Amino acid sequence: VEVKIEVVIPEKERSKEEMSPNGKASPLIYRVNGTARHYHLEEHPIASNPYHNPKDVVEASVCHVKDLENGQMREVDLGCGKALLIKENGEFHAVGHKCPHYGAPLVKGVLSKGRVRCPWHGACFNIGTGDIEDFPSLDSLPRFQVKIEKEKVYIRASKQALQTQRRTKMMAKCISLSNYNLSSTNVLIIGAGAAGLVCAETLRQEGFSDRIVMCTMDRHLPYDRPKLSKSMDSHPEQIALRPKEFFCTYDIEVLTEMQVAAVDVKSKIAVFKDGFKMEYNKLLIATGNTPKTLSCKGKEMENVFNIRTPEDANRVVKLATSKNVVIVGASFLGMEVAAYLAERAHSVSLVELEHVPFKKFFGERVGRAVMKMFENNRVKFYMQTEVSELREQEGKLKEVVLKSGKVLRADVCVVGVGAVPATGFLKQSGINIDSKGFIVVNKMMQTNIPGVFAAGDAVMFPLALRNNKKVNVPHWQMAHMHGRIAALNMLAHGTEISTVPYLWTAMFGKSIRYAGHGEGFDDVVIQGDLDELKFVAFYTKSDEVVAVASMNYDPIVSKVAEVLAAGRTVRKRDVDAVVFLSFRTGDMSWLTGKGS
Prior knowledge:
GO terms for molecular function: 2 iron, 2 sulfur cluster binding; metal ion binding; oxidoreductase activity, acting on NAD(P)H. It is found in: Mitochondrion. By secondary structure, the chain is an alpha/beta fold. It has four domains: 54-164, 3-layer Sandwich (Rieske Iron-sulfur Protein), CATH 2.102.10; 170-292 and 420-500, FAD/NAD(P)-binding domain (3-Layer(bba) Sandwich), CATH 3.50.50; 304-417, FAD/NAD(P)-binding domain (3-Layer(bba) Sandwich), CATH 3.50.50.60; 509-592, Enolase-like, domain 1 (2-Layer Sandwich). Helix content is 17%, strand content 33%. It has eleven helices and 41 strands. The strands form eleven sheets. Strands 5-14-13-8-7-6 form a six-stranded antiparallel sheet. Strands 18-17-16-22-34 form a five-stranded parallel sheet. The chain has a five-stranded parallel sheet with strand order 24-31-25-26-27. Residues 1-49 and 591-596 have low confidence and may be disordered.
């Protein structure tokens, strides 16, 4: 059956580069109940002038052609907004100047081989189209017209695009929603975090026009989960990844407060906790992790929290203000919560089994520097001990007793002692689960069951950076890419994952950025000054740099991420040269070679 789908796209954006990566949408073939169905994105005629409203257009001369050398970027002002002007291989390009994720200035990012990487969180954008190529941003950059006249560079741009600095890629809609039984869907996505949302969006961007259902135990639409510990008083609507209207517009159905209890992969049926059953054709499991709880007496007491929802975070902030807080676990969540509450609470105490925070992840020297920063901000550490008991008074938490014998006053306790994969409901499904509960997938995010994919924090997948070793990478950026790869392979694209892990943590107004996968590192080479909290740390294993972390040293982490993404190897002996060439001189030529 030949069907044309409706494409929702503003008139002014109907330009060639926004139809698809190759400029023209290709037919998609998708099999539903054994019947091949073909879908075509509607091919709009390409107008010679894509800006149909002259009042919405600004054109300005921004520089002389010789003002920029190859490989240079410049932020230019068009009067009603700014653009990023780029020169690469003798050609000029102009795109939005801010990363759509958190607004980082891309002029301070990294330009390499046709794309610019955000200096803050590693999102990558194609300089020719503005399209996003790596996450965590959901939106692409607007692309502006560039012309050369009399050796002057002119940019022609939409005023609206200059103001918004973001562009949502063209998406399809469901054309046969009314024909579906409520208990059947073509694609079922279990979990509504970053992986689930990006999977749904990618399917629509690729022209998929059958029914998509996402289900989540949460009461909210997908939201920016990292902000639960970094910006704890944010309300759900403030951290929503997409507004409600977005899901309605693109026919992405979200079932909230719905828990899947079992999956029958032979019958292709998901069974919900309330008994409801839904048949699917393709399945994505993106359930993430479940926080570990304490095992001591009093763990069920009021005012003891695992921060899992916006309501949890908001409640902790309210209860902790001018009170005594005890945080158990110097994890990323525990440390970020401690930093956020330090200025609000009367006291913040942090209990940790290790002798230094982040030792396994950042190494002892970086961990000690971070610990000192916290101590300078009134956070008290109780290391190499555990909680033995939580004591109450009139039904509420009053004290935290440590195995060392120390008793801490506590009005609120936040538990951040790690998490386990939320995959218990799959134990009898036949889906391959390892001994720790992680779902095992291949490079295309496929499980051992045809038509069943998995993504996000609950999976073990082959990491190209580490010779395809199966790893678990519970990072926000990686969950986005997992979702995209899964969607592309639901559509039989045969796309393999090859992204470089990238994460960040924010504490007391300072950020640590990190790229790579340093598990099992045997040495740390540090450049800069740890005492001044201005440093870059290279994590090595058998003389090879496997990860890098920095504080106040942007954009070195993004630069190294580009090196690793290009398949190059950085050796321990090269670290001094890497820092000098990339950071102090700005010379990027070392990115363009091959091999080591």
